[in-house]
Amino acid sequence: MHETDMTKALILTVRDWWEAQPERPQISQIHLTVGQFTCVEPASLQFAFEVQTQNSFLQGAKLVIRETPLIAFCHRCQQEYQPEIGIQYACPTCSSPMEDIRSGRELKIERIEYEQFNYMS
Amino acid sequence: MHQTFDAALGIDLLHANQAGADHNRTHFDEWGITCFNVMSSPGAGKTALLERTLAGLTPDLKIAVIEGDMTTELDADRLRRYNVPVIAINTGRSCHLDAKMVAGGIHRLAHEYNPTEFDLVLVENVGNLVCPAEFEVGEHVKVALLSVTEGEDKPLKYPVMFQEADCLLITKMDLAPHLDVDLNQIIANVRQMNPHVTIIPVSAKTGEGLSEWFDWVRTEVGQLAGMQSLVVGH
Ligand SMILES: Nc1nc2c(ncn2[C@@H]2O[C@H](COP(=O)(O)OP(=O)(O)O)[C@@H](O)[C@H]2O)c(=O)[nH]1
Ligand SMILES: [Mg+2]
Ligand SMILES: [Zn+2]
Ligand SMILES: [Zn+2]
Ligand SMILES: [Zn+2]
């Protein structure tokens, strides 16, 4: 359900950007990075996005979600490993606890693709 | 002709909430208040713990409660019996408190009372193991509750909250003898992802573990108050 809130936050941020563009371009794609070690479910986010952008300036825009895996760094082994979410988080080699998360916590709007009339060409 | 362009944003989706949380934390720091965000699944015993905490720590500590997990107005009344301000937040159908909702609560607190009189604000979050951990409300300390009836695997299944908690209270310990629950397994599961968390098994019913919890609260409040007075220069 919090995907609704996340989507609201997403739309507000994109709207701020859009309103600052003199041309008010047609946005075709929004690229997000969503870490696997967050509370966000990409499918729910897609659904909420479709519902909330109907009849808005984002009508027809596509949400492209890149998921990043949970990657931790074990200081004892001096190497990265991928914890198995839901099963085991400690280092599979030496059982040290997961302390240093290198990837998987991201919730980011990376970039926007938009169409615009180009006078130059 | 129409061309496709690209604009790099690189903005955190939770940016607005984070800014709101910082706003709240600045208030707390100015007022010399420590804020605890108390989180758990529904029914793990947050309100029962808060009742015991108010009974055990007031009036030595001046406490106010921000109640975001109201099933009925009865919950707030249960807490008001301890003569502390209880600010009820209407969360609508939201599955977590966000910084803006809590801002409304603390502005009300500041309007109705002298906020500098308080030492501790306890925020009872919406009962949910998933997202309250993701939406900071301006707290200094995250407290997670897990009742013994919920099973050893919950920390593995809902890791974000347990990974971020500063203190984990394993609640309803009085029920443990009646269940097939392995306390050491719960602790090991949490330590896999959060080795430094303080873990205290408690029972709001029998009082087990509560003095250890009270000591922990006093220490946290004392340490933070020391830092706040250095920064603000009171
Ligand atoms: N046996 C036992 N029951 C408890 C304890 N703490 C809370 N409960 C019960 O668990 C239920 C939910 O408690 P409550 O504090 O409302 O949980 P909340 O939803 O997290 O606020 C109530 O029926 C409480 O009486 C405890 O330490 N032992
Ligand atoms: Mg409650
Ligand atoms: Zn939520
Ligand atoms: Zn290792
Ligand atoms: Zn304010």
Describe the model.
The complex is a heterodimer of chains A (121) and B (234). Chain A is an alpha+beta fold and 121 residues long. Chain A has 2 domains: 1-69 and 104-121, hypothetical protein PF0899 fold; 71-101, no CATH class. Helix content of chain A is 25%, strand content 32%. Chain A has a 3-stranded mixed β-sheet, covered by helices on one side. A 3-stranded antiparallel β-sheet of chain A has the order 4-3-5, with no helix packed on it. In chain A, α1 (2-19) crosses α2. The relative contact order of chain A is 0.24. With 234 residues, chain B is α/β, with parallel strands linked by helices. Chain B has a 7-stranded parallel β-sheet with strand order 4-3-5-2-6-7-8, sandwiched between helices. In chain B, α3 links the parallel β3 (63-67) and β4 (86-88). Chain B is globular. Chain B starts with a strand and ends with a helix. Chain A binds chain B through residues 1-2, 5-6, 9-10, 12-13, 17, 25, 28, 32, 37-40, 83, 85-90, 97-99, 107-118, 121, and chain B through 1-17, 93-96, 98, 130-131, 133-135, 156-157, 159-160, 163, 191-195. β6 of chain A pairs antiparallel with β1 of chain B, so a sheet runs across the interface. Bound molecules: guanosine-5'-diphosphate, magnesium ion and zinc ion (3 copies). One zinc ion is lined by residues 74, 76-77, 91, 93-94, 96 of chain A.
